[in-house]
Write a structure and sequence with these properties.
heterodimer, A: mainly alpha, B: 164 residues, mainly alpha, Arc Repressor Mutant, subunit A, 2 domains, 74% helix
Amino acid sequence: MKELDLLKKDWKKQNTYFPKLSYHDIYILIHKKSSSIVKWIFIICIAEFLFWTGLNFIIPESYLDIYKQFHLNTFLYISQVLHYILLLFFIFIFYKNFKAISVVDSTNLLMEKIINTRKTVNYYVYFNIALYTILSIILNVIMLSNPDILIKVMSLEDTTISTDNFLTVLLLVQITTFAVVCGLLWFYYRIIYGILLKKLNKNYFELKNMEG
Amino acid sequence: MTKDLEHKFIDEFQKNQNIVHKVCRLYTNNQEAHNDLFQEITIQLWKAYPKFRGESKLSTWMYRVGLNTAITLYRKSKRTIKTTDFENILHRIEATDYDPTEEEQLKLMYCAIHQLSDIEKALIFLFLEDKNYKEIYDTLGISQVNARVKMNRIKIRLRTILNP
């Protein structure tokens, strides 16, 4: 291709018109802060770990009193211990993957490592969603199959609302909350993947497709 | 020790800074973006420098970090692309060549290259720098056969852009 040869000839000549940075200029540059995607992914991942782990502490103690009435204490305790073990496991994998990211790797490998690091945190989020969903299903089944205790605990005996209506409302409120939370999560991940990872994903798939 | 390393790095970087400029030229459209990417590549090179053992040439190592930063790590700080600045960059070509038809062709060629994807730009860059397919494999991580196939496709694409 003759245009390409022409371009190559010109490309070799261009060195002369690039500005030459002085020692001092370079010194200033290397002391500036990086704004690389890896740094952002690290910050966001740490924030997600903190958020999902923090959710456990936000729930007030008094809320757990309800479960005492249903003799669910041991069950909740075990599920919490399990949660922390898995949290440590996820943090370990995340740290290992993050440390493996190296700008000196080939582009293909570098992108793979970044995506793997991000995936660890995604799995942690999926795990949390699954855990909360399963727990709330189990708790609801237990509570709704014992409506007498539930009504007693919520001290609703003197209200005019009927038991059936009350249970329906309770269930509807829970389903709505669940749907809203899922919607917010979906929105959040759209933002993360849309803004932060769009370029990375696009380039990664282009390289992968090349390898067929 | 850190000061020594810093001194050594700045010294070596100063001699090879054109490599970074060339990467920025392919991946950015205006001076502001050029400087921004230049800064990020420089920071990444400095961060990776303590692990540089000299098993490859410094220039090869710089190509790799430079391209990786441009393709993967770099995020544009501003989204707006100023077309006037783009013109300015193109004008710089005029000073080096006096043949008006060649000059026109070069302008079109640079325009066409800016329309390629990030990965395609990387291949063109390595081609312009006379890197062989083994080095392309080491840098991008795509096999030599696939790199060759892709390079041919890029040539066809450039031809289509130039003669629509």
